[in-house]
């Protein structure tokens, strides 16, 4: 079970990238978002509950990974970036220009951590804390991408 948790938490070991493991995890998320694009375009009342279940499982996986790595929010844990990228692309266009823009926006908001992501990052511990700040960044990135798609 330990090996499976490490594999999932590190997004197939992308979290062990020697430089920018969060960016490596986001690339895995970008590929995953592209791969599930057709599913992601289903009505929100079908997709959101499924995402919530996967997100909850990822909180548990992240919490166990923190114990394995003996470090809170270890840089090796990148499952949060994977789900963040997937949430960023929720019902947004899947061509590569929009996906690249979504990737850049998500990375920006993940680094800057606007409210409430920064507050969550500083105060919430455990697997939920690992996951929720990236979900906040993804929501910002999704909204900004939608605005760009609509008005530009």
Structure at a glance:
The chain has helices spanning 2-9, 21-35, 37-40, 44-69, 79-88, 96-112, 117-123, 126-151. It has 152 residues and is mainly α.
Q: What is the strand and helix layout of this fold?
A:
Layout: H1 2-9, H2 21-35, H3 37-40, H4 44-69, H5 79-88, H6 96-112, H7 117-123, H8 126-151
Helix pairs in contact: 1-4, 2-5, 2-6, 4-8, 5-8, 6-8, 7-8
Describe what this molecule looks like in 3D:
The protein is mainly alpha-helical. It has eight helices and no strands. The mean pLDDT is 92. Helix 2 runs antiparallel to helix 6, helix 4 packs across helix 8 and helix 7 runs antiparallel to helix 8.
| Average of the residue pLDDT scores | 92
* Tally of structural domains: 1
Largest sheet: none
Distance between the termini: 47 Å
Share of residues in strands: under 5%
Envelope shape: globular
Backbone CA Rg: 15 Å
Strand segment count: 0
Tally of DSSP helical segments: 8
Percentage of residues assigned to helices: over 70%
Structural class: mainly alpha
Query: SSE string, helix = H, strand = E?
Result: HHHHHHHH
Poorly predicted sequence stretches spanning 5 or more consecutive residues: none
List keywords for this structure.
single chain; mainly alpha; 8 helices; 74% helix
